[in-house]
Every structure is written in structure tokens, then in C-alpha cells.
Specification:
binds flavin mononucleotide, single chain, 5 strands, 16% strand, 5-stranded antiparallel β-sheet, globular, NADH Oxidase, alpha+beta
Length: 204
């Protein structure tokens, strides 16, 4: 599978894609504990990350980066987290690592803050958009995907293991693999409760 990357300045006409709309309307994450090999190949991963890096990005700052975790490197990261968890009285921390241990591939999306005129909030939102694109593209490629944060996105030692420093935030760990079971539809928002049409308001 090859990724056709547009050249800078190339016209990119907007074309309707009913197939994409149908896919998005039924898109569903898969539980990390159901994700097994095979995961995306190296070429497929390159495509997925390239698509995710096309996320809307005010100021073209690319205020995010990826850390790929697979094979022995992921095993080493898990071992490091186990050592951190072992120092805690909370036994649930080790148990929660199953979600990281099980899938063949994990990608940490690290949100950066680049000082300047673009508000930090917008840079963080862009990192969330990267995560959304990454799971969506992986699902469109036929893989199961799950966006997880859990304790190791926030623990200082765990963050250091990933090389996250300073104002870096872990936007998420994206787990990828082949799902054992088809995920079931979950509860979705009541659209009437979250959509309104703006009407003029009196300002005193
Ligand atoms: C920023 C973020 C962090 C999340 N962290 C977790 C988590 O730590 N544990 C968990 O079970 N689900 C977590 N979720 C929710 C899962 O991604 C969930 O499977 C997903 O929302 C399912 O919805 P979908 O099928 O619409 O994609 C997180 C979601 C987001 C957006």
C-alpha cells in the first residue's frame, strides 16, 4: 500500500466521499485488551503517522511528536512501568498495564507547547486532533484502535521514561492491532442536548 503525498502547493480539490461518511458514521474504537497481532506493518505505520501529522495545526508548528512502542522496545517500556508501579501501594497500577502489554503496537502522542503567538490551548487541541486522525486512519485501514491515557500518561517517572519533559503532555497512547471481537456500539450523545441554533441574546 502506497501513500500518495500531495506536493506543496498542489491543488487538492474537495471531492465528496460517501464511503468515508459511511465509515465515519459507524466508526468504533476496540478495547485494547482485544487487540492482537498482526498490527500495522512498518510501511502501514508510516502511512498512519503521515496522515495523523496532517491534523489541523494553527501556525504550522507541529506541536506534537510520536513515540512508537513495539516488540522488545515496548516490552522494555512496560518493564519500566512495572518497576514504577511496584513502588506504589496501589496494586491496580500493574493490572492496568495489561492494556499496554496486549496490543502489538502502541504510539504515544506527545503534545508540546511552542512559546509564541499561538495559544497553548490551540496547540493542545491540535494534539487531540492528531490522536483522532490516528485512530480513524488505523480503523479505516482495518485495524482496531483505542486511545488511552491511564496513570502512566500522568506519572512523572513514566513520563520521563518516554522522554516527555517540561511542558510536554501525553495526549494519549494509541493502541493498534487486530481486534478479536467486533466492538459493540456504545451510548452516543443525545444530539438534541448538545446542538442549538444561536439566537440573539440581550446583553445588559
Ligand atoms: C483523551 C482520552 C483519554 C482516554 N483515556 C482512556 C483510558 O485511560 N481508559 C479507558 O478505558 N478509556 C479511555 N478513553 C476512552 C477510549 O478511547 C474509548 O474507548 C473511546 O472513547 C470509545 O469511543 P469510540 O468508539 O467512539 O471511539 C480515552 C479517551 C480520550 C479521548
Amino acid at each position: 500500500m502506497l501513500l500518495t503525498t500531495p506536493k506543496f502547493g498542489e491543488p487538492l480539490p474537495i471531492t465528496a466521499s460517501p464511503e468515508t461518511l459511511a465509515f465515519l458514521a459507524a466508526r468504533r474504537s476496540a478495547s485494547a485488551m482485544t487487540l492482537h497481532a498482526p498490527g500495522p506493518s512498518a510501511d502501514q505505520l508510516h502511512i498512519l503517522l503521515s496522515i495523523a501529522a496532517r491534523a489541523p495545526d494553527h501556525g504550522k508548528l507541529a506541536p506534537w511528536r510520536f513515540v512508537v512502542l513495539s516488540g522488545v522496545n515496548k516490552d522494555g517500556f512496560v518493564a519500566g512501568l512495572e518497576a514504577i508501579a511496584a513502588r506504589s501501594a496501589d496494586s491496580s497500577l500493574v493490572k492496568k498495564l495489561g492494556k499496554l502489554r496486549t496490543p502489538p503496537l502502541a504510539i504515544a502522542v506527545i503534545s508540546r507547547h511552542i512559546p509564541g503567538k499561538i495559544p497553548e490551548w490551540e496547540q493542545r487541541l491540535s494534539a487531540g486532533a492528531v490522536c483522532t486522525l490516528l485512530i480513524t486512519a488505523a480503523q479505516a485501514m482495518g485495524y482496531g484502535a483505542n486511545w488511552i491515557t491511564d496513570w502512566y500518561a500522568y506519572d512523572a517517572d513514566a513520563r520521563a521514561l518516554l522522554g516527555a519533559a517540561g511542558e510536554d503532555q501525553i495526549a494519549g497512547f494509541i493502541y493498534l492491532g487486530t481486534p478479536g471481537d467486533a466492538p459493540l456500539e456504545r451510548v452516543r450523545p443525545d444530539m438534541e442536548a448538545i446542538v442549538e441554533t444561536w439566537a440573539p441574546v440581550a446583553i445588559s
